Amino acid sequence: MKHLYCRLFSHDFIVKNEITKFVKEYQCLRCGIQSTTSDTGELIPLTDKRREINKVLKKLYNKRRKIKQKAY
Ligand SMILES: [Zn+2]
């Protein structure tokens, strides 16, 4: 039933993990499906490969942010 609702309407996503300012990982409150932001800004399924990419992306993003803060 829960899945059917998501299929008929849309997923009720909440942000689970903020990777960068633009890329986030989402989870549906109803069916638990996970999504992330693609390179083109669309929502795509969060696969293991994507999760790895996001992990690296987050590390780079945090590092860059720290450098910026130091320089400031
Ligand atoms: Zn859903």
Assess the beta-strand content as a share of residues.
25-35%
Query: How much helix is in the residues?
Result: 40-55%
Average pLDDT reading: 91
Bound molecules: zinc ion
- The domain tally reads 1
Number of helices: 2
Q: Could you give the order of the helices and strands?
A: HEEEEH
- Specify Rg, calculated over alpha carbons: 15 Å
* Unreliable stretches: none
Distance between the termini: 53 Å
Number of strands: 4
Strand order of the largest sheet: 1-2-3-4
Protein name: Prophage protein DUF1660
Organism: Gelidibacter pelagius
Can you describe this structure?
The model has no long low-confidence stretch (mean pLDDT 91). The chain has one domain. The protein is α+β, with helices and mostly antiparallel strands. Strand 2 and strand 3 form a beta hairpin. 43% of the residues lie in helices and 25% in strands. The structure holds zinc ion (ZN). The site of zinc ion (ZN) has 6 residues, from loops. This is Prophage protein DUF1660. It comes from Gelidibacter pelagius.
Topology record:
Layout: H1 2-8, E1 13-18, E2 24-28, E3 34-37, E4 43-45, H2 48-71
Antiparallel strand pairs: 1-2, 2-3, 3-4
This protein binds zinc ion (ZN).
Residues 6, 11, 28, 30-31, 33 line the site of zinc ion.
